[in-house]
């Protein structure tokens, strides 16, 4: 997945990303398990997560403006005819907003993706979720894990954007929802305050995500009580 994504982006953009060299897998253990390995070029810089909290607001803004330029370039890539939602070439994708561990998809269309997001408790979703999920969005190329640990910098210059495993063709709001989905602490909240500088805001879609989470959180509470 990531190899194909990187190769596509390396040929389609001038975003600073690792150059993919090769991908291979090897058997592991006594059962039919294979571990995959991706060989790529080494990129300069350190993760932005190491310095984000000590940077001045002005320095953060310099970095974010570079990121905005790269995101505009990413979203300007025209999708292929009749694209599936998922990794390049209609492949499955591994994304924290979809599942924690296993690749899923590809999805035939946005309705298919939304059914996956609602999961087996779709009938318990509030009407606002169903109304929001009835909307349709343009498909754009998205990173979907664009957080400081995946942005390499030297000072205030972005030297690389890494970890493209979760990337692919997704509805235009999906990346913003990924950003809001992952806010857990003060570090995340500070980063999130800059997100509207490089991504369009999609608050209705975020609220639908929050409503879905509440349905499943209430189910877990009920299940724990029963047990």
Automatic annotation (TrEMBL):
It comes from the Eukaryota. GO terms for molecular function: kinase activity. InterPro entries: AGP_Transferase, Aminoglycoside_PTrfase, Kinase-like_dom_sf. CDD domains: APH_ChoK_like. Keywords: Kinase, Transferase. Residues 2-192 form the Aminoglycoside phosphotransferase domain. This is Kinase-like protein. It comes from Fistulina hepatica ATCC 64428. The lineage of its organism: Eukaryota, Fungi, Dikarya, Basidiomycota, Agaricomycotina.
């Amino acid at each position: 997945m990531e190899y194909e994504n990187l190769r596509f982006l390396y040929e389609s953009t001038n975003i600073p990303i690792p150059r993919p060299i090769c991908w291979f897998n090897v058997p592991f253990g006594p059962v039919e398990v294979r571990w995959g390995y991706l060989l790529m070029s080494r990129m300069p810089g350190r993760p932005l997560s190491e310095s984000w909290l000590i940077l001045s607001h002005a320095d953060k803004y310099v970095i974010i403006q570079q990121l905005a330029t790269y995101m505009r370039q990413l979203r300007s890539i025209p999708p292929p005819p009749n694209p599936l939602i998922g990794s390049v070439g209609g492949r499955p994708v591994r994304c924290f907003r979809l599942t924690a561990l296993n690749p899923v998809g590809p999805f035939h269309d946005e309705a298919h993706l939304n059914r996956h997001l609602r999961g087996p408790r779709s009938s318990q979703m509030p009407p606002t979720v169903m109304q929001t999920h009835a909307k349709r969005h343009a498909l754009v190329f998205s990173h979907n894990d664009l957080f400081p640990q995946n942005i390499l910098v030297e000072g205030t210059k972005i030297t690389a954007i890494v970890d493209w495993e979760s990337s692919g063709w997704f509805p235009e709001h999906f990346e913003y929802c990924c950003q809001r989905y992952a806010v857990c602490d003060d570090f995340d909240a500070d980063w999130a305050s800059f997100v509207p500088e490089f991504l369009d805001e999609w608050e209705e879609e975020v609220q639908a995500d929050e409503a879905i989470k509440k349905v499943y959180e209430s189910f877990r509470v009920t299940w724990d009580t029963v047990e």
